[in-house]
Amino acid sequence: MGERSKYLCVAEEKIVEIPISKIKNGVMEKPELANQTLLMMQLVDETENRKPYKILHISFENVSFAENGKYD
């Protein structure tokens, strides 16, 4: 079993995932979210055979992305 985190933003009535590969040194980058304040959800779940098994933690936060699409 392992753990993984997912970051999801609610943008214009759709859900946008920020892949872990787009987070470097604590800075999230998603150019299509530039100049927007959005509701972001962090989901931490336990996996079994690389599939979600159990939710461990969920948190919500309003975040603002800069004009270059970065949030830190």
Compose a concise summary of this entry.
The chain is an all-beta fold.
Strand-helix topology:
Blueprint: E1 2-11, E2 14-18, E3 23-24, E4 27-29, E5 37-48, E6 51-64, E7 70-71
Antiparallel strand pairs: 1-2, 1-5, 3-4, 4-7, 5-6
Write up this protein.
By secondary structure, this protein is mainly β. It has no helices and 7 strands. It has strands at 2-11, 14-18, 23-24, 27-29, 37-48, 51-64, 70-71. The strands form 2 sheets. Strands 2-1-5-6 form a 4-stranded antiparallel β-sheet, with no helix packed on it. It has a 3-stranded antiparallel β-sheet with strand order 3-4-7, with no helix packed on it. The protein starts with a strand and ends with a strand.
Q: How does the overall form come out from the CA principal axes? A: elongated
Give helix and strand order, one letter per element, not per position: EEEEEEE
Work out the helicity level: under 10%
Secondary structure tally, helices: 0
Rg, rounded, reads: 13 Å
Fraction of residues in β-strands: over 45%
Number of distinct beta strands: 7
* Average predicted confidence as pLDDT: 92
Q: Biggest β-sheet, characterized?
A: 4 strands, antiparallel
Helix/strand structural class: mainly beta
Q: Which strand order spans the largest sheet, edge to edge or round the barrel?
A: 2-1-5-6
Low-pLDDT runs of 5+ residues are none
How far the N terminus sits from the C terminus, by CA atoms, comes to 30 Å
